[in-house]
Amino acid sequence: MKANFITKRLKGGIYAMKGFYLLLKTEPSIQVQAGISILMVVAGSYFDISREEWMLQTLAIGLVMSLEGANTAIEEIADFIHPEFHTKIGLIKDFAAGAVFFAAVAAVIIGILIYYPYIVNINL
């Protein structure tokens, strides 16, 4: 019984890694967010941000990337169920995109709160 539980968790992890890979390989919105994430990690290293700032930045990146993935899944399901344009499907897709937008705005605010003090204190 215990081996079956572990085997199922391992398979689930493999499926999750496959989804991660497919999102990065095929989805332009995820690719853009991944690029921004890399830039933020470079900025965090350059400015030597605090542990707490790293935690907030990592949380913001994870939230945006996760919601982008969920948005992609919702769009795929909606297109599969109703391939031609439908007002209700459009509304559902807009809601999913709106959730990503909320997270992105929060991430930008977090980025400003973290980096503004470092940027204004640079000695040129």
TrEMBL record:
It is a multi-pass membrane protein. Keywords: ATP-binding, Cell membrane, Kinase, Lipid biosynthesis, Lipid metabolism, Membrane, Nucleotide-binding, Phospholipid biosynthesis, Phospholipid metabolism, Transferase, Transmembrane, Transmembrane helix. It comes from the Bacteria. The keyword NAD does not apply. It is found in: Cell membrane. GO terms for molecular function: kinase activity. The chain crosses the membrane at residues 95-118. It is an enzyme of class 2 (transferase). Its EC number is 2.7.1.-. Its main location: membrane. CDD domains: UDPK_IM_like (cd14265). PANTHER family: DIACYLGLYCEROL KINASE. Belongs to the bacterial diacylglycerol kinase family. This is Diacylglycerol kinase family protein. It comes from Mesonia profundi.
